[in-house]
Amino acid sequence: MAANLRLSQIFNTYLCGATLGLALLLGCSGSPDASAPATPTTSGGDSATELLEKMQAVYRGAKSYTANSRYVRSIVLREDGIERETPFFQMSLAYERPNRIRFRFQEASANPATEQNYEVASNGTHVRSAASSVPDQIHEALAPLALTPENFIPEPEMRAAILGVSLENLNPPLLMLLTDEAERAVFPEDSNPKLLGEKKLGEDNCFRVSLSNPAGKRVLWIDTQSYLLRRMELPIETERKMLDPNDRFSRISIYVDFDDCVVDAEIEGAAFELEIPEQARRVRRFVPPAPPGPSPDMGEPVDDFMFTTLEGKEVNKETFAGKVVVFDFWHTHCPPCRSQTPLLDQVYKHFKGNDQVAFYAVSTDPARISSGNVAKTLLAWGGEMPVLRDIEGLSYEKLNVRVTPTLVLLSGDGRLQMFHRGLHSDPASLTAEIQKLVDGKDLAAAAIARHEEQLKEYERTLDAATIKDSRVEIKVSRPEVPPQKLPEHLQLEQVWQSSPEELKQPGDVLAIEGELRILVLDAGSEIVEMDPTGKVLGRHALPEHPEQRNGFLRTALDGEGLRWYLASGVGWQQVFVLIRIGSPSFLFPTNLIRELARCFWPISQDRASSLCMSAIGEGSAYKAEPSMAAGSGPTGVLAMCYRLSVARWIKNRTGKFGVPALGAP
Predict the structure, then answer these.
(1) Looking only at Cα atoms, what is the longest distance across the chain?
(2) DSSP state string for 394-405
(3) Sequence-separated (6 or more) residues with CB below 8 Å from residue 288
(4) How far apart are CA 382 and CA 44, in angstroms?
(5) Tens-digit pLDDT profile for residues 286-327
(6) Terminal-residue alpha carbon distance, the chain
(7) Which of 114, 285, 369, 639 has the fewest C-beta atoms lying within 10 Å of its C-beta?
């Protein structure tokens, strides 16, 4: 991700080493309280479905809304039975129709320097976005006329980061506020709503509704007076083993509370302004920060140090004068060190006979771990390199080694040439770097020069993304859209009506633009041609096929002005193409190819029809040849035919389609 925005990764820290990000992406909720009996209606007589509809109506009808919310993990340890709650991120929201918003997301991290924070604000004229990972950049764009779940975050990297966790699981009130369509499901994967008993949340009474989700049960706490959502328990039952692999908890749940909820209050305009810090830039897109540079000590002589061999002999900086030195700092209870050891051993053996290279595994284990155990451990891990011990911890003080494993390379004159924290998994590149030092190359100077060039490239990229003019500050005249007015009365006049003898089971109707005729697909088996008065001009039977319901007709002109017709249907598994009504139809696939086609990845029937019609009208290159047909798998059309050659359309992981040739039908 370009700007390293990683919202879904934030959840990793808070679930005992398991990833809540996965739980949220699967659909989210906590363990509903099954102790209270389910009730068929509320005290006011509402069913669970009616209660959900009332909740959605409040948000969709609200002129403004403000609330603070926080995600909480609740656990009960088996060993003591005490409930512990840990907030792990919080959000705040202010919204005013149609296009003003202030949304903040803040991670509750023990280390403020690494926590992830996001903010987006629209004042109705422009939208500004900020992310803690790019602290000196403010993205700016024109505000849309109305905010939707898809456009309220215009910066693409930030939008992908935040909406990587589905909005109904992150902040359902925001989803309901931004969605005007009443038929749009707030929780599309949930079903079977049931009322649970009422409960208090603080001082307020709440209705509770449970919903079945593929990941478990979601429970919504709805205020009995305002019908606002006050708490959502997330469904995590299917992830219980992952979240608690050692079965330490007698209960674990994740919930989000929505506090300080206010509807239809006046909100000051300043609440929707995101100020630009003096040192920050307005940008068209977020630019990732420049990569961190090499250690400030890179290329500098290291301080003197002193280690001991397994036999107790002391070695120091002078011991290795004139040699390239490789130190692998490790200890016996370090899993990454164990993984790295066989790889480093390959490098050690490459230089084993070279008296210009000194290669050592430096154990940072305390004195209570015997030298014998240190040596046996390294050998058991697959390492045959000689061992030194740093019992006094001088590597921490003199060489700035803070973690294991850490690799340190020194040149023959004792200057720092490489400092690599963490697992090194590329023995070939390490071998090449050591050889450069042996050949007299200066790795530190090259690293410093490389970083300077990276800084220049970063500045060039940031400068190109910077907004230097006031184009988003221009006062844009907004069109005044009057309220929608629908006719109060409609008068219908019947022109004609077909008889049962003329049309048995009329289906899709196709009026040909510019022509005085109408085509009707009758019973899925024939095309009936009629004039505007309803007079039947002709009947054109389709070849016999097993599935005849849910049919449709399509038409298009090719590059030569010739009209083509297509008849197919949902589940038909076949497509009939006619150059003219009444001509023999071109059928694809044949029964044999249709059986083979069942193994293909399908695309939808409507999508295939659109592709077919597009192919017909693409240009004169297709002339009057049959330029397309489509076949299908169990759930949709998936094959296309160009110039009587069949090509298979397979949807790959990027969502694009390839067209490898399959042969003629």
Answers:
(1) 110
(2) HHHHHS---SSS
(3) 2, 3, 4, 133, 134
(4) 72
(5) 998 888 888 888 999 999 999 999 999 999 999 999 999 999
(6) 44
(7) 114
